[in-house]
Design goal:
232 residues, alpha+beta, six-stranded antiparallel sheet, 17% strand, elongated
């Protein structure tokens, strides 16, 4: 199925796609479905040559045939799930920034050869899923992402829809004293693949730490994410 999607998701139902000019249901249904999703993603994403279209415009462009010919049944399905797409698009759009940050981190991991080439794809997928699941499930207004490979700390302020980055050594940018920094380091050293999380209190803040592991090296985490909440 993965091969079918990769090879034929640019085919079109009327045979005007590429690379093989397949017509109708000669195109595997998996590739047909991803073809629609791929076009929608391209329309609603910013590119160097265009701004992003809103979701309604993107769907209408697909329905009007402006992006090529698709299976009429899939076009009907697209109409039926329009409301669901709207809700997903509205609630998840801001989280794309977190996804791109996670993707950047995964690139740094590969460059540092923390993951082996023959298994890195699946491990990157698992790594990104764990990270995105944490961010998605968190109800906190402030999240953070620390990349020890490049010593970069990113603070994500959901309420203000802003992101702050800073090159740091460990967690000095939390603006706490050396004693607290040492406490953070101590707890981080005690984490493991089986025991990834801990929470510390700094003044009026509760900060939850979640360590990320490559699945190979059980002696050192490869990332730290977490959330910051004010104590009630």
């Amino acid at each position: 199925m993965a091969y079918e999607i990769c090879r034929w998701h640019h085919e079109r139902f009327d045979g005007k796609g590429y690379p093989d000019g397949l017509v109708g249901n000669d195109i595997p249904i998996s590739a047909q479905v991803v073809s629609v999703a791929d076009v929608f993603d391209a329309l609603t994403s910013t590119r160097v040559y265009k701004n992003a279209y809103d979701y309604r415009t993107a769907i209408q462009m697909i329905l009007d045939g402006e992006c090529g010919c698709f299976n009429p049944l899939l076009v009907e399905c697209l109409k039926e799930v329009g409301t669901d797409i709207y809700l997903a698009f509205k609630t998840q759009k801001d989280d794309y920034k977190d996804y791109h940050e996670a993707k950047k981190l995964s690139g740094e991991i590969l460059k540092s050869e923390t993951l082996p080439y023959n298994d890195h794809s699946q491990r990157i997928i698992d790594f990104l899923k764990e990270k995105m699941d944490f961010f998605e499930l968190s109800q906190s207004k402030v999240l953070f992402d620390y990349n020890p490979l490049i010593c970069e700390l990113t603070i994500i302020d959901r309420e203000k829809n802003k992101k702050y980055k800073k090159s740091v050594s460990e967690f000095e940018s939390f603006d706490v004293n050396d004693e607290v920094v040492e406490e953070v380091k101590k707890h981080l050293k005690e984490t493991s693949v089986e025991n990834k999380e801990f929470t510390l209190q700094f003044k009026e803040l509760n900060i939850k730490f979640h360590t990320l592991w490559s699945g190979l090296d059980t002696d050192q985490y490869i990332g730290v994410i977490g959330q910051i909440d004010r104590r009630i």
